[in-house]
């Protein structure tokens, strides 16, 4: 170690290490922000430290509908089993109090006119079977009630009422779970990416929405909200600040006729939160655009809602959706394989504010796009011409039949002249 320190000074070693670290830049990815709304429409929100759990029991029906299917089926099964066991115990107590469980009563019943409360109930198992027969209204005929005990008649009425309540609640819960509104929203699709392009001389934020079913969504409306973290002038930090942005719709009622996929457009004007954002600033923005589609299901009349969101990485600047609706043999056909396909178009890279202040930017961008388009057409035509010439030459070389033979002409003087035809 002493020899090495004497040969290589410590100052030189530190300087070399620092220089190597400078040559290798360390790229640190920006931490990805959690989405507020997932692409499938689920809310990315976790509720913690809820102390008043009793509020969920006050609305027991909604709680049962919100539970998972396995929990619902367990509650459905246990409710019936508990009610059968409870009333089986009551029937057993009625029979025991009347003396139906005593073996000596069987001989007495044969000799005299002694009548039990429930026939053929001499154990808890038979009382449990009779409870099931009463509540499910099976009626096998072996066990039946008599008019001997008014208490047994009261238990019968009470069990029928409880059984009807359990059936109504559980059947209603299962029906609501199978006919929930978000099930219909599974066939409402949004484009994976959104685009920003020029439409009617304005920068517009656009995305595509469609419905896979033939049954329509009545009174469908689309809302867009921007969710971002903001700080007020007083220093208050709002982690989820929601701002509504208008949707360009020529219909005053703001409803859309969703019979075919539509491109929803938002004009980026002074009211828009995207007004000061350019193409270079978009990747650095920490924002999320939430799209909400609401409407009434035509077949069931239930209001449904479909949601999705777009973050900065999912917005393409200078792109436009390709058309997917064509007319084929008198029928409008929709090609869903191109639902999210986009094509690059000419669009200024500046913000909408700069475009409003300097309208010449749009004209220059369109002129440059037209020149580049003409140049690409010239290059393409020249390449096609060269390829056709090369193809003809190669065909002449490979096909000897295409080579023109030489013909000799003899003049009267005897001289020969060769010419090629």
Automatic annotation (TrEMBL):
<keyword id="KW-0851">Voltage-gated channel</keyword>
<dbReference type="GO" id="GO:0005886">
    <property type="term" value="C:plasma membrane"/>
</dbReference>
<protein>
    <submittedName>
        <fullName>KCNJ8 protein</fullName>
    </submittedName>
</protein>
<dbReference type="InterPro" id="IPR014756">
    <property type="entry name" value="Ig_E-set"/>
</dbReference>
<dbReference type="GO" id="GO:0015272">
    <property type="term" value="F:ATP-activated inward rectifier potassium channel activity"/>
</dbReference>
<feature type="transmembrane region" description="Helical">
    <location>
        <begin position="151"/>
        <end position="175"/>
    </location>
</feature>
<feature type="region of interest" description="Disordered">
    <location>
        <begin position="372"/>
        <end position="397"/>
    </location>
</feature>
<dbReference type="GO" id="GO:0034702">
    <property type="term" value="C:monoatomic ion channel complex"/>
</dbReference>
<dbReference type="InterPro" id="IPR013518">
    <property type="entry name" value="K_chnl_inward-rec_Kir_cyto"/>
</dbReference>
<feature type="transmembrane region" description="Helical">
    <location>
        <begin position="73"/>
        <end position="94"/>
    </location>
</feature>
<dbReference type="InterPro" id="IPR016449">
    <property type="entry name" value="K_chnl_inward-rec_Kir"/>
</dbReference>
<feature type="domain" description="Inward rectifier potassium channel C-terminal">
    <location>
        <begin position="188"/>
        <end position="358"/>
    </location>
</feature>
<keyword id="KW-0597">Phosphoprotein</keyword>
<feature type="compositionally biased region" description="Low complexity">
    <location>
        <begin position="384"/>
        <end position="397"/>
    </location>
</feature>
<comment type="similarity">
    <text>Belongs to the inward rectifier-type potassium channel (TC 1.A.2.1) family.</text>
</comment>
<dbReference type="Pfam" id="PF17655">
    <property type="entry name" value="IRK_C"/>
</dbReference>
<dbReference type="GO" id="GO:1990573">
    <property type="term" value="P:potassium ion import across plasma membrane"/>
</dbReference>
<keyword id="KW-0812">Transmembrane</keyword>
<feature type="domain" description="Potassium channel inwardly rectifying transmembrane">
    <location>
        <begin position="37"/>
        <end position="180"/>
    </location>
</feature>
<keyword id="KW-0633">Potassium transport</keyword>
<dbReference type="InterPro" id="IPR040445">
    <property type="entry name" value="Kir_TM"/>
</dbReference>
<dbReference type="GO" id="GO:0034765">
    <property type="term" value="P:regulation of monoatomic ion transmembrane transport"/>
</dbReference>
<keyword id="KW-0813">Transport</keyword>
<dbReference type="InterPro" id="IPR041647">
    <property type="entry name" value="IRK_C"/>
</dbReference>
<keyword id="KW-0406">Ion transport</keyword>
<keyword id="KW-0472">Membrane</keyword>
<dbReference type="InterPro" id="IPR003278">
    <property type="entry name" value="K_chnl_inward-rec_Kir6.1"/>
</dbReference>
<keyword id="KW-1133">Transmembrane helix</keyword>
<keyword id="KW-0630">Potassium</keyword>
<feature type="site" description="Role in the control of polyamine-mediated channel gating and in the blocking by intracellular magnesium">
    <location>
        <position position="167"/>
    </location>
</feature>
<keyword id="KW-0407">Ion channel</keyword>
<dbReference type="Pfam" id="PF01007">
    <property type="entry name" value="IRK"/>
</dbReference>
